[in-house]
């Protein structure tokens, strides 16, 4: 392993948390980075801080045409696309009985359609070049369900299944699931139920920092072409 990643890597949800940490981690590897999220001002500041081969464009993953334009812009900027990290996600938790249909829809749109839109944008290119790597950030919530997290977990089970399906259908394309446990980020800041927001704060007392997930993503990317890291689950210990 050289520590050098000579690839063009696209990252969604790069304006905060795990996405931002992944940008910082990969910038140190020499990878060419094309980063997206809706908050362009944060992306601009990050790209300016890191300099070098970090370019950005505003991205709403729920908009298929917008995602296609994002991938096309990365290709125009760097000549090719090698890796897509589908990291953008939202988690407005609530019990089912609260019937927060708008929040269910938003989670399904960002967490599931967003991942599918990203795959749709890169897949024809990856098939044509007979190589490519899709890294999907799922969650420990792709393996277990918690009260008030039924819809969120459903979206992450879906991400798990989509990634596994991609892997099975395309032997020439690497597909990696990253499943973090609790990480201290802005995720869930939009929870509208005060009791659940307080519960999340309690959970976060034992949490990872986002760089732990960034290192797991880097590990998957650094493997030789013939090695596909199928899934990495990363959870905090009491040492945090
Ligand atoms: P953050 O809230 O810090 O980051 C979420 C990112 O997603 C932001 O950059 C946000 O950018 C972006 N995003 C949200 N909606 C959209 C959209 N429509 N289009 C484009 N980007 C969007 O949370 P995390 O870093 O924690 O989350 C990253 C991923 O990790 C998510 O998929 C999350 O589900 C997953 N995860 C997180 C865990 C945790 O405990 N934190 C645990 C397990 C999984 P912007 O608002 O600028 O668009």
Automatic annotation (TrEMBL):
It holds the Pfam family adh_short. SMART domains: PKS_KR. Belongs to the short-chain dehydrogenases/reductases (SDR) family. Residues 7-143 form the Ketoreductase domain. Keywords: Oxidoreductase. GO terms for molecular function: oxidoreductase activity, acting on the CH-OH group of donors, NAD or NADP as acceptor. InterPro entries: KR_dom, NAD(P)-bd_dom_sf, Sc_DH/Rdtase_CS, SDR_fam. It comes from the Bacteria. This is SDR family oxidoreductase.
